[in-house]
Specification:
- The chain contains four helices and seven strands.
- The protein is of the alpha+beta class and 129 residues long.
- It has one domain.
- A seven-stranded antiparallel β-sheet has the order 2-3-4-5-1-6-7, with helices on both faces.
- A hairpin with an 8-residue loop joins strand 3 and strand 4.
């Protein structure tokens, strides 16, 4: 579960007045899935979305509030059907993932991140401390 992180820029928005408007655009884009988890930071918003009929097929999205861009976060772990809420909870509780989300520019940096339970995200090719 998890591994090399892949980040895809989904779409950019104009300057919006509220985070709710940004989320409404994402929900429309993703065909109105259910919001399973929601975490707000001064620089970012992270949501975990899943279809109502497939709650174990969730996806992770991060909104960069400064650049008004939605990012889709995925991992090279052969989990092609998405993630369950419990897997997402492992990501945030055991992988120190908020450290990356709070600085969304790190998500799109040329650095390749490796994320694993029990470790802080590491730059691919470096051993964790």
């Amino acid at each position: 579960m998890f591994g090399k992180m892949h980040v895809t820029k989904m779409f950019q928005l104009g300057k919006l007045e509220t985070v709710d408007e940004a989320v409404a655009k994402l929900l429309q884009f993703a065909d109105y899935p259910k919001i399973v988890r929601w975490f707000q930071f001064p620089t970012a918003l992270m949501v975990f979305l899943a279809p109502d009929d497939a709650p174990d097929c969730g996806a992770i999205y991060v909104y960069d509030r400064k650049r008004c861009v939605w990012l889709w976060v995925d991992f090279n772990d052969r989990n092609y059907g998405g993630y369950s809420p419990s897997q997402f909870d492992v990501l945030i509780s055991q992988c120190h993932f908020f450290g990356l989300v709070e600085s969304p520019a790190l998500l799109e940096s040329p650095v390749q991140w490796f994320v694993a339970p029990g470790q802080r995200p590491t730059v691919l090719g470096r051993l964790p401390a």
